[in-house]
Amino acid sequence: MIKKCIFPVAGYGTRFLPATKSMPKEMLPIVNKPLVQYGVEEAMAAGLTEIGFVTGRGKRAIDDHFDISYELEHQIEGTGKEKSLEGIREIIDECTFTHIRQREMRGLGDAILTGEAIVGDQPFGVILSDDLCIEQEEPVMAQMVRLYNQFRCSIVAIEEVPSDQTEKYGIIQGESIKDGLIRVTDMVEKPKPSEAPSNLAIIGRYILTPDIFDYLRDTPPGKGGELQITDALRKQAKEGCVMAYKFRGKRFDCGSVDGFVAATAYCYEHLYQEPE
Ligand code: UTP
Fold it and tell me: Which end of the chain offers a freer environment for a tag, N or C, measured as fewer CB atoms within 10 Å?
């Protein structure tokens, strides 16, 4: 059973400056809920209730968000406003939270390797909360856990992207196993469109088997001088098994202003309920 989920939240969020100067990108709200709460709700819906944040400087607001705020709760006790905190209260009751600092911003692979101290020797989920995934019936991480239970190997969520956008993503190559499921044979981080092996892009949802840590330790810095999870997964795919899964649902790249605005409009229209 997978219980742990790592949230790498150490990034600077430079695309959202000045908003992210002193506030973590993951605390930006989509309507009235911070991005990271959507992510933790998705983990919880998949049974991943042991949450590990890989943090950096200036991320205290995330810790505080997943903690009880006695003064505030006392203040609104007995009023209609109590309802607004029910969702987060349920998360705090059902999940445990651990925090570990990534010492330097050396890339997503390094952030995940930092999470080893939390994860230990078990398979685990990874959610990048700036990729907001909306699927109400079976959220994306729950879909992936179901697949993991069948295949028992690392799984990456993928999406078709326009071919001129491959430079923003890790791109996979593979053999189709069945509808929506591909066995990865190769992958490359942020290729130019002319060098991309496909237009199937890895998005911010992973289930990783713990041998990924050894692959990460053996991986030299890659694109941009950062330790890339794509490079470690590539080795794992060649020596073991990595599946790529075309998930059901909608994804918004909330690390970009356009994606953030689109997510806000979508969630306001489809998910938001006015407080009574
Ligand atoms: P991004 O590439 O979106 O970087 O990282 P960023 O710093 O968050 O945002 P911009 O590009 O400056 O606007 C992808 C994910 O990996 C995490 C980030 O927090 C984000 O969730 N990350 C990245 C780390 O935790 N540590 C790193 O060293 C790099």
Answer: C
Tally of CB atoms within 10 A around 149: 11
- Ligand 1 pocket residue status of 75, Cβ below 6 Å: no
For the stretch 159-188, pLDDT in tens is 999 999 999 999 999 999 998 999 999 999
DSSP secondary structure letter of residue 219? P
For the cut 90, the answer to whether the pLDDT of residue 74 exceeds it is: no
- For residue 35 and ligand 1, the question of a CB distance below 6 A is answered with no
Boundaries of every domain in the chain? 4-270
Closest CA to 7 of 141, 144, 134: 141
Distance (Å) from CA 97 to ligand 1 centroid? 20
Distance 150 CA to ligand 1 centre (A): 31
More confident residue, 250 or 275: 250
260 vs 37, 74, 117, 227, 266, CA distance in Å? Answer: 15, 33, 32, 26, 10
CATH of 4-270, one of 3.40.50.300, 3.90.180.10, 2.30.29.170, 3.90.550.10: 3.90.550.10
